[in-house]
Each structure stands twice: as structure tokens, then as C-alpha cells.
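FBD domain-containing protein, Aegilops tauschii subsp. strangulata. C-alpha cells?
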Amino acid sequence: MAADFYPLVSFLQHAPNLESLFLKLKTDHEEIEDNIRLEGISFACKNLTMVKIKCPKDDERVPVLTQMFMANGIPIEKIDVCHRETRKTCHQSLGLRRGYAAL
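C-alpha cells:
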């Protein structure tokens, strides 16, 4: 994902009927800019009821993404973040919360 989140925002702007969004943030990524501006970032996904973010622990992109979703009408309760310390614990944690078998 680009440091300015443009590809994600562009996708969301062109997917107004999206209901669920799953993001997996990779460990190797561009550093986000300190002066990233959320004011001009808007999208209308009125059917979006769930955002799941899998990411490395202490990923600095998560607070920015959370603010962006909240600024566009997605309540914090609909945003689920899974910090993966190891691949196994993340899958087990996600599986236990949703009643799925661990991968």
C-alpha cells in the first residue's frame, strides 16, 4: 500500500456497495508521511459493516487507517485489528473469535 493510501482510497471510492473489507498489511512497506492529510480523503461505502485489519504489532498505519474509516462514517466498533506477533497466534485468535477452525 502506498504511503498516502491512494490505492485503497481509490478502490473504496469505486466500491460503494462493499460490505466487508479485509486488509493485510505487510511488514515491509513505505513509511507513512508525518503530514498525511485525511481531510481530502472521502468515500461512500454505506453498506460497509466490517473492516478487518491484519498487521504487524505497533504498525503506524493502523491509527491513520482507523481515523480515515471513522471520518467516512465507519464506527470504531466495526473495525477489528489483529496484530500478528506470529502467523499462528493471529490465525488462532481470529478463528476463536469468529468460531472458525484455526488455519
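The longest helix spans residues 87-98.
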